Amino acid sequence: MRRRLAMMAAPNKRWLNRTVLGIGLASLLSDWSHEIATATMPAFLATLGAAAVWLGLIEGVSDGLSSFAKMGSGYYTDRLRRRKPIAVIGYVVTAFGTAALGLATNAWHVLIARAGAWLGRGVRTPVRKALLAGSVDRAAYGRAFGLERAMDTLGAIVGPATALIILQVSHHNYRLLFLLTLVPGLLAAAAIAFLVSERERAPVPHISFGERLRLLPVSYRKFLVAVGFFGAGDFAHTLLILLATQKLAGTMGLARAASVAVSLYILHNVFYAAFSFIAGWLADRVRKNWLLAGGYALAGAMALAIILLPLTLVTFVLVFVLGGVYVAIEETVEDSLCAELVTENHHGMAFGVLATVNGIGDLVSSFVVGALWTAMGTTVAFAYSAVLFFLGAILVVRLPHHRAAA
After folding, report:
1. Does residue 5 lie in a domain region?
2. Segment holding 232, helix H or strand E
3. In a domain, 89, yes or no
């Protein structure tokens, strides 16, 4: 009886609580850490003589490995009374994996270090989302996830800016830069350990993985199909940094073009941060699937801009702004819609499956776009993405309006 009451106990009515702030702070610090590395990784690979296909392979394999870690973590953590220790371990592994990029002397070394960091990221992600969803009322999912995404993206603004400062002060010492990522990375783990308060919960009884999948509602599975098509075109935005660096180098020189590309990525993340909470606020007030479809359509508009417009600095400003806005809508609304479509006891599994579908899409999209770019040029590469972006928008707008039982 007590166990049943614990499962039915309502979360804290005050949505802006210690756990929401602690998870948001951890997201800010961790993103600060790995965005220092993400913003400079294309230029670092260039110093190693690696081609665009290597960047696509690194991002694709890392995201793919991360996605399977998310699936396993989501399934396993629903069976635990306490999820928080898994999240702490994940943040620590990500911090050390990111710092290990400084040891790389070949492109495949970068692949191993990045994959290790993203493995830790995969383990922690569904746990963090389940902790966040469990700390607020269902009516506040959009705001809670929107704030977390906004703080995460604030780290993605500070990270590239920090990278520019470190590179200038250290005369492009990439080894030192990657080592310094340990500081915010480990502080993120500390934020989860000391600030997040986990509610007592009854673990889900042990049943097979397949049976757990079958318990997820049909509306959620249709949602995953739409997410999957969109994700198959949703390439890593480090490819945008590489594109800007290459296209602007002819008029600016390689060093200045690389700095401008990182600055554009900071602009991308400013809009990402600004629109994350706005998207969450809207998601609590309008139909989430319509809002998500709008985000997917913006991604298609970004891809069309790359294909149809001359690739000048003005065009890249537009591309990076659209990229930041659509990612803010996509990530915030996908998470809040996922939390709404399933009951709280299955949040870990649902977030794990969603992350896996996204990760498989990232694996496919980053590698395919990188390969098409190398073999056939940017027009074919980004046309591939545009088709899948618009297909995802069509599928998600057709989802029925549905709320899972509390």
Report:
1. no
2. none
3. yes
